[in-house]
Amino acid sequence: MPSIQYAAVQQPVQSRFAECRQYNPTMFNIRPAAIMAVTHAAALTYCLAGCSVTSPVQPASSSKSAFDGAVFTGQTVTVSAGTPGSVAYRVFNQAGSGFVSIQSVRDDAEQRAKDFCDRKGKAFESLTETTAVPPYVLGNFPRVEIVFDCVEHPASFAPSSVDDPKYAKLVNLKKLLDSGVITQDEFNREKAKILNQP
Predict the structure, then answer these.
(1) How far apart are CA 53 and CA 73, in angstroms?
(2) Do the beta carbons of residue 190 and residue 182 sit within 8 Å?
(3) Hey, which residues does 129 pair with through a beta bridge?
(4) Which of 17, 101, 120, 130 could pair with 76 as two cysteines, CB 3.0-4.6 Å apart?
(5) DSSP 57
(6) What is the DSSP code (8-state) at residue 60?
């Protein structure tokens, strides 16, 4: 097989392809149009299958839920009634594939909400959470939308909600629901039990 000269590298791609095909016809028996078709198909697959979505934090009153009008609707759980006079905000996260856990998508959304409230010098308070329901297929990748408000930090002498055993139990219960370990009915029953405890 003759060596290819340096000047040949500067030739247009198609003539270079033809030159290589001349020396090894079986290896280069692919038409350039076929190569382009495969390249376009791969790019389309990547665009459809690898699109994670994160929306900016927006006021809930002037923004639309990402679940509104969706083919696959989510399941909404009310976490808190909110603080009177506080502005409610909305944050949305969607995984790039069906292989990402709903819990990691939820954790990312919650962290973005907490960071948003931290920048305002306030504390994060979750109001509602809407999550996608399995099966996680194309068009219904794991996604979470949290509506929250930013409230004043609790006074230093008052116990924080993180130290409150009811809050910790509710958070753990929500994680079990998100991971699919318990059903929505089981969640509601256990939530009522926890909230009715003294």
Answers:
(1) 16
(2) yes
(3) 77, 146
(4) 130
(5) P
(6) G
